Amino acid sequence: MNKFFLRKARISDVKSIHAILMDCSRQELLLPRSYSDLYSHLRDYYVIAGDTGPAIYGCCALSIVWESLAEIRSLAIVSDLRGVGWGRKIVESCLSEAITLGIYKVFTLTYQVTFFKRLGFIEISKDVLPQKVWADCLRCPKFPDCDETAMLMEM
Ligand SMILES: CC(C)(COP(=O)(O)OP(=O)(O)OC[C@H]1O[C@@H](n2cnc3c(N)ncnc32)[C@H](O)[C@@H]1OP(=O)(O)O)[C@@H](O)C(=O)NCCC(=O)NCCS
Is 88 a pocket residue for ligand 1 (Cβ < 6 Å)? Predict the structure, then answer.
């Protein structure tokens, strides 16, 4: 039976991460990421891997935005593995990395408000986020009518 574990992403994970994110983006749950974006930001990513092959089953990235702010982005767990704690574990690894980097504020833009509340995030107004955050949003088909909720964790 496959056993799962959490680790930093490797170059060989990129195609699987891309596939997971494409699948969720088709359901309009998050933004897709190009191969170019994934290769250049691969060090931001954690993945859920299995011990029986190269497939990965979840991913999440911690992206540094500014001096004291980082973003949780591209969070997805494959549907068969949801509801057993991997989402929490992968986000907590990102938060732990933020602390290691000396960054104590982490935000996310999400439709999964209850999930992030369970992890201790609070809802905030999008207006308090710096302008730089919105650079990615220009590529979003919903721009400028963002219907995601901004949520913040202060550690
Ligand atoms: C959101 C997502 C990452 C959650 O991952 P998961 O592994 O199922 O979550 P966990 O099992 O770690 O759950 C953590 C907590 O959140 C709760 N939770 C998880 N998903 C939830 C949901 N959709 N609604 C309400 N609560 C939820 C769990 O009950 C659990 O609470 P507890 O620890 O207090 O008992 C996963 O559903 C997913 O990949 N969804 C599709 C992609 C997506 O929407 N990504 C978010 C983009 S920001």
Answer: yes
